[in-house]
Structure formats: structure tokens, C-alpha cells
Amino acid sequence: MDRFRIEGPTPLRGTVRASGAKNAALPALAATLLTDEEVRLRRVPRVRDIATLRRLLAHLGQGSIEGGAERLHLAPAGAASPDDAPYELVKTMRASVLVLGPLLARRGHARVSLPGGCAIGVRPIDQHVAGLEALGARVALDHGYVDVTAPRLSGCRFRFATVTVTGTENLLMAAVLADGTTVLENCAREPEVSDLARLLVAMGAEIEGIGEATLIVHGVEALHGAEHAVIADRIEAGTYLLGAALTGGDVLVEDLRPEDLGALLELLAETGAEVSLEGGGVRARRAGALRSRDAETAPFPGFPTDLQAQYMALMTQAEGVSTICETVFENRFQHAAELARMGAEIRLDGRFARVHGPRRLSGATVMATDLRASASLVLAALAAEGTTWVERIYHLDRGYERMEEKLRALGGRVERVAGEETSPGATAPGEGGTR
Ligand code: EPZ
Question: Which of 302, 304, 294 has the alpha carbon at shortest distance from 324?
Fold first, then answer.
């Protein structure tokens, strides 16, 4: 398993371009199952989760070829293909559940392994299932699979009991080919959901209320091919902006929509970091002592849970006590124990973490447990005195493209040290299943 060797302290300084958003590219790839025509996607990040979904799509008969840097061209491979997503593929990436809606809409049947939980929580899909049933699907849960059948889907009115990003995306992709009109209420409003909706419209779907909590879909007979550029990764960008403040640096993230990062920019400014909009991107720099500020994660447009771990690393350097409340997932503080091994003082109490700062961080050997916890440890290591080894960075590789290269370009002293290769689906003890 590869590791990062990081020397600190080093301020991050310079300009970096955000890759395409992993969490927009994944539903976009799944959406290509809705048409027999070629779909061309641009700004697709080269990260492990994309490679995993491409393998699943190939299993389902949907070919994908690289059309140049960050470009994927997808079309049916022609042969008759299965409509099941096997456990071996789904267990390494729960976002594979995104093939459920399009397969059902296009082929009338889908059999997808239940994704199971992961390090950050149980991750149920009850809202996905309830929504597909409301559209007329017959659902069976057996032997760890969800099996959905519907010769034809009929428009309905469905209200999500919980705001769910992939749940909203699955139902959008199912409704676009249903008979009649579907009204989805209490939808997730993440930019990645809106990006999927824009791709579906480019493919011929009729969707009203994009960006709002209520989406209205008028079903159509068929969708056609399209060309689409995926939005920038706001979580990757936020990670580098937080890194600038944490390391006492100055970073401009280019080619980014500031409105996608609203809550973070306000919070960063409140901590005393200087935030500005420049050259089609966002710049953050440390300007003196950091102030502790409480934060509570929430669905968009609130503070994103995917930046909570990185924000916690920042608060270890802020004056005073900050309280971080994680409202979205039930077990998303695993980075706290690893940060504490580097010298942070963090007290956990259920959904609350209280960070006492500033505390001097020193290099240590730490272990990544999930994608965003890994990013938090890397940022802390850049601010810590001495050498840090971050183990199991395959977690990072799931969602950060060429992170060591981008950090080195910002002055970070980061080196990837290859470890013995693990099979792509390998999960270390305690991974895959819920904690
Ligand atoms: C998406 O996961 C993202 N993944 C996650 O990013 C992100 O953390 C999450 O949304 C929240 O923003 C992708 O888009 C591929 P949810 P998703 O369904 O859709 C509960 C990363 O780091 N829930 O919005 O799986 C659920 O348990 C990843 O890139 C139900 O109860 O998250 C959670 O508490 C991690 N029933 C809450 O809703 C359901 O049917 C939000 O989950 C579905 C969800």
C-alpha cells in the first residue's frame, strides 16, 4: 500500500487548478446508460472511483474510451449485457448504486449489490428504494442484493424523508424516461446534482427547478447523445484553500465557481484567513492569527460534510475552542484520533468534536481511514514539525487526482512511497463493513 512521506512545516503558495468533480463525474457516467448514443464527457478526473465505475459500466455493456486528457467517450459495446452490479465491484465503491435508476429506466430491470456501509457510516439506500417503488418498480431485497423490476415507470410525486445526494440523482435518472410527470420534493441541491440535471437536459430530458429542492421531470420517450463538461471539484478546491490557511500560505485555485463554495468561504473569512475572488477562481491566504469558529455540516448550501475533516485540521491552529458538529454521517470523526497523535487536542462527544487550539503539531506515522480524513492528515502533516508518514493513501487516490504533484507545485514537500500493491478491491480490516 502506497504511503506519503511529508516534511513540514511548509507554507503552500501558488496556483493550482481543480480537477473535475468526482461526485459530478460519477452520476454523469451512470447517466450514459440512458441512451444508445455516444456521450462525450470532459473534465473527468483520473481518480480510482472513476476507474471503478468504468469497470462496472464495462460489465454492464457500456464501453468507455479515453478521448484525450480528462475526456471520456461512452457508448454501448453492442453485445447483450447483464444488468447486475456484482458485490465484488460495488463493495469498493458504494456510488455504484447510481446504476440502479438508469438501468431500471432503460432496461426495465436492475440487480445491484447493496453497497453496505463504509468507515463513515451505515449508508442506507432506503430512500432510493422508496422512490423507485413510487415510480412503479417492484423491489426485492435478498442475498445482499436489491432487485428492481418495472416494465414501465410512471410519473409520481415523491418526497425524500432525508436529503440524499445519490438518492436524488438515482430518481432523476429513473424519472426522465417514465410516463408522465414526476415531482421530487426535498431533493439534494448540491452543485453535482444540478450538473447531472444539466447533462440529462442536454441528452433531451425535460427537467424544471434545477438547483431547487423541488425538481419536476416530464418523462420523454428516449434520450440522445450529448457532450458535457463536468463542473470543478469544490471539495478538492476547498481542501487546498483550507491548506493555505492552515500552513500560513497563499493559494489561488483556478477555474472554479465561487458560488459552489459559499459556506466555506464565509467560514474561512470568519477565522481570519483572507479570501478573495481572482482570475476566475478563489484565493485564500493566512493573514495573522487564526480565530476558532464553530461549524456545523449540512446539505448544500450549508457547510459540506466532505470538508469537515479538513476544517478540523485548521482549527487545531486557531486560538480558542471550536465546536464542530457533524450532522450528516454518524461516524465521521476518525481523523480526530490521528490528528491527536500529531499533537492536536480534540474531545469527541457524539456528533460534536471540540478542538482546543492552537496546538503545535509534530510529524508522526498516521493512518488514513476514509477519503476526506486522509486529506485532513495530509494538510496537518504539511503544518507539522518534522516527518509524517500517511499510510493507506489509496483512500486519497479515490478522490484526489495527482495530489502529491499538485501539493509539490505549491511548495509542499510530499513524496509518494510505493508499497506492495494491493488488489483494487482489497479492503483492509474494518473497511467495507460498517464500524
Ligand atoms: C454523497 O454520498 C457523496 N458521494 C458523499 O461524498 C457526500 O459525503 C454525501 O453525498 C453527502 O454530501 C457521492 O456523491 C458519490 P447521502 P451519498 O445519500 O449520496 C442518509 C466523498 O467524500 N441516507 O446524501 O451516499 C445517509 O445515511 C463522499 O466524496 C438515508 O438515510 O450521501 C446520510 O446520513 C463521501 N437513506 C445522509 O442521508 C438513504 O436512502 C446523507 O447521505 C440515503 C441516504
Answer: 294
DSSP 101-153: HHHHHHHSEEEEE----BTTB----HHHHHHHHHTT-EEEEETTEEEEE-SS-
The DSSP code sequence of 234-270 is: HHHHHHHHHHHHHHT-EEEEES--GGGGHHHHHHHHH
401, pLDDT greater than 80: yes
Residues of the chain within CATH 3.65.10.10 domain(s) are: 3-19+232-417, 22-229
47, 127, 166, best to mutate for ligand 1 pocket (most atoms within 8 Å of CB): 166
The CATH superfamily label for domain 3-19+232-417 reads Enolpyruvate transferase domain (3.65.10.10)
Annotated catalytic residue 325 = no
Q: CA 113, CA 145: separation in Å to the nearest integer?
A: 4
> Do 293 and 271 form a contact (C-beta atoms < 8 A)?
yes
Q: Residue with C-alpha cell 458560488?
A: 259
> Which of 52, 163, 164 most suits a substitution to test ligand 1, by most atoms within 8 Å of the C-beta?
164
What percent of the chain has pLDDT above 70?
Answer: 96
CA distance 383 to 403: 16
- Of 4, 58, 1, whose CA–CA distance to 32 is shortest? 58
Are the beta carbons of 84 and 272 closer than 8 angstroms? no
Give the model confidence (pLDDT) of 43-85 as tens digits.
999 999 999 999 999 999 999 999 988 999 999 987 778 888 8
> Is residue 306 within 6 Å of ligand 1 at its C-beta?
yes
Over the range 318-330, which residues count as b (16 or more CB within 10 Å of their CB) and which as e? Answer: beeebbbebebbb
H or E segment at 357?
A: strand 352-357
- For residue 2, report the distance from its CA to the centre of ligand 1, in Å: 27
Confidence of residue 429 (pLDDT cuts 50, 70, 90): very low
pTM of this prediction? 0.95
pLDDT confidence bin for 421, thresholds 50/70/90: low
How far from the centroid of its chain's Cα atoms is residue 397's Cα?
12
Residue 123 Cα: closest atom of ligand 1: 27
129 lines ligand 1 (CB under 6 A): no
Atom of ligand 1 nearest to the CA of 370: 22
**Distance from the CA of 94 to the center of ligand 1, in angstroms?**
10
The confidence score (pLDDT) of residue 294 equals 98
Q: How many C-beta atoms lie closer than 10 Å to residue 420's C-beta?
A: 6
Class of domain 22-229: alpha beta
